[in-house]
Amino acid sequence: MNIEAALTDLVGEPAKKLHTARSRNDQVSTDFRLWCRDAIDATIGCLKRLQVALLKLALKNEGLIIPGYTHLQRAQPVLLQHLLLAYVEQFERDVGRLQDCRERLNFCPLGACALAGTGLPIDRFMTSDALGFTAPLRNSIDAVSDRDFVLELLSANSIIAIHLSRLGEEWVLWATEEFGFITPSDSVSTGSSIMP
Known about the structure:
By secondary structure, the chain is mostly helical. The chain contains 6 helices and 4 strands; from the N terminus they run ααββαβαβαα. The protein has a single domain (21-114, 122-174), classed as Fumarase/aspartase (Central domain) (Fumarase C, Chain A, domain 2, Up-down Bundle). The chain has helices spanning 2-11, 24-60, 80-105, 124-130, 140-145, 148-175; strands spanning 65-70, 73-79, 107-108, 135-136. The strands form 2 sheets. It has a two-stranded antiparallel ribbon. Strands 3-4 form a two-stranded parallel ribbon. The longest helix has 37 residues, at 24-60. Belongs to the lyase 1 family. Argininosuccinate lyase subfamily. This is Arginosuccinate lyase. Residues 4-196 form the Fumarate lyase N-terminal domain.
């Protein structure tokens, strides 16, 4: 209602046709899909930048041998490059999961209205195309009730969080006095109230 009121202030009476062949059901679902699509694109961009940073770090440390650990016990010597590239591989799978999710969610619910479509002569394919969707959703009831794409996106992001946590925890351990493999700069670390 607020959007319609603001639009009415801007363009007058034609704004009152905003809800023609639409309902809040298909509009909210469409907005949510657009938001998720943008979030996926942004996350993929971040993961790609992280992969490039890890590749650069690997190239900068060519031939550097470090101890490999299993359950915090020293196991075999490994190249730092090999370890860093393991994370590059994990993040590549994460990107693939996001791309798969994006492909499945990129269908347009507009025109499904409350749940049974409309008798008005609308062009759902034109609307879908204008918004960058692959096509309109085929079933109007599914179009307004489906939230599978959200669960899939949450799942993909949970896996990304596990990979990021693993990388972060490894570096936290490496920065401890016991390990002493890295010394973070003051720009990315702080002391505590009782420790230097």
